[in-house]
Amino acid sequence: MSNRKYRFKVEDIPPKNVKPKSMWNNPTEVPRLIKLRKEAYAALNGSLPLFEDIALSIKIHLPWNYNKPGDLDNYIKGICDGLMKCQNHPKLKLDETFEKTEHENIHPKTFAMIEDDEKIIKITAAKAVEDIEEPFYEITVEGK
Fold it and tell me: Cβ(46)–Cβ(121) under 8 Å?
């Protein structure tokens, strides 16, 4: 099977998956997850998730005056987890926002761009502070 490659841009900062709280029910992270998953869904365009030899490239663009930009590694984890299905855990409660009809295509229990982030073999990530008005990030995902 040949490699597939997907590129997309998300207007916002990436979701952060920081313990002990789950990003899947965190009021700050849920809107960011929804934006990420919508753009990933559009980029995938009906194809099956990637499941092998996955390479991920992330570039985060922040304005000069952005307050508390956050750690790059927390964003990487949030993106990786956000591109998969949400892990089934008996104590995990998803935010009710995901149950809205307009989010059925990106629901955390059904949609994934990456089958399992364990199959990511390479990650390239950068955070740049630039002369821009609003933060955004770009993602390239390649694999089989």
Answer: no
Quote the pTM value. 0.94
- Cα separation of the two ends of the chain: 7
Query: How are the residues of the chain apportioned to helix, strand and coil, as percentages rounded to the nearest 5?
Result: 30, 25, 45
**Per-residue DSSP letters for 77-142?**
HHHHHHTSPPP--TT----GGGGSGGGGGG-TTT--SBS-GGGEEEEEEEEEEES-SS-EEEEEEE
**How many domains is the chain built from?**
1
What is the chain's pLDDT, residue by residue, as a tens digit (144 residues)? 689 999 999 999 999 987 767 899 999 999 999 999 999 999 999 999 999 999 999 999 999 988 777 899 999 999 999 999 987 777 788 999 999 999 999 999 999 999 999 999 999 999 999 999 999 999 999 999
**Radius of gyration of the chain measured on its C-alpha atoms:** 15
Q: In sequence order, what are the beta bridge partners of 57?
A: 124, 140
Q: How far apart (Å, rounded) are the C-alpha atoms in residues 113 and 82?
A: 9
Domain that holds residue 25: 4-143
